[in-house]
Amino acid sequence: MNGDFFDLLIAGIRREAAAGRAAVSPAVWQSLNVAAVKPAAVRPEPEIIPAVPAREPAAEPPAAAVSGDAAARLAAIADRIAGCGQCRLCEQRRCPVPGEGDPQARLMFIGEGPGEEEDRTGRPFVGRAGQLLDKMIAAMTFRREEVFIANIVKCRPPGNR
Fold first, then answer.
1. Exposure string (b/e) for 121-132, b if CB count within 10 Å is 16 or more?
2. Could you tell me if 154 and 96 are in contact, meaning their C-beta atoms sit under 8 angstroms apart?
């Protein structure tokens, strides 16, 4: 990852220098250890891929369903997630994984997305990573029920990507 960062940094310096906006001294090039690098090595700009058109949003829950205590609000959110069809991930999921734990938790763990075991059970972090997370939570003198655990993506991506 550092290589990508430095490649982008160097490419930016080259663009600025070529545009006459910045004078890059030989000392700067030498400190970056790129004196021998030729401008042709600069990567092309990434191709912009258009987004998939969004589907119709799920119906809003009634106002009463989102008012009240935190548990009721989380239940309403879980219902919305279960009925969500805004992206294509819902087409192959078995169970959406909205999250679980204490709605008033002071500590939250957020993962990327559900894996195979999570997709099967509808619960976050129940596979191998979940076993490790449970040990980490216990090491912090918490119980799983005292924290909130969720994923950014609520449906398992194809091929677990």
1. ebbbbbbeebee
2. yes
The predicted-structure confidence for 38-63, as pLDDT tens digits, reads as follows: 444 555 666 666 655 555 554 554 44
Cβ-in-10-Å burial (0-12, 13-18, 19+) of 149 comes to: buried
pTM of the model: 0.56
CB count within 10 Å of CB 72 equals 14
Tokens 């559900």 — which residue? Answer: 114
Residue 92 CB partners (closer than 8 Å, separation 6+): 155, 156, 158
Look at residue 159 in the predicted model and tell me its pLDDT: 76
Q: Which 3-state string (H, E, C) describes the chain?
A: CHHHHHHHHHHHHHHHHHCCCCCCCHHHHHHCCCCCCCHHHCCCCCCCCCCCCCCCCCCCCCHHHHCCCHHHHHHHHHHHHHCCCCCHHHHCCCCCCCCEECCCCCCEEEECCCCHHHHHHCCCCCCHHHHHHHHHHHHCCCCHHHCEEEECCCCCCHHHC
Percent of the chain topping pLDDT 70: 57
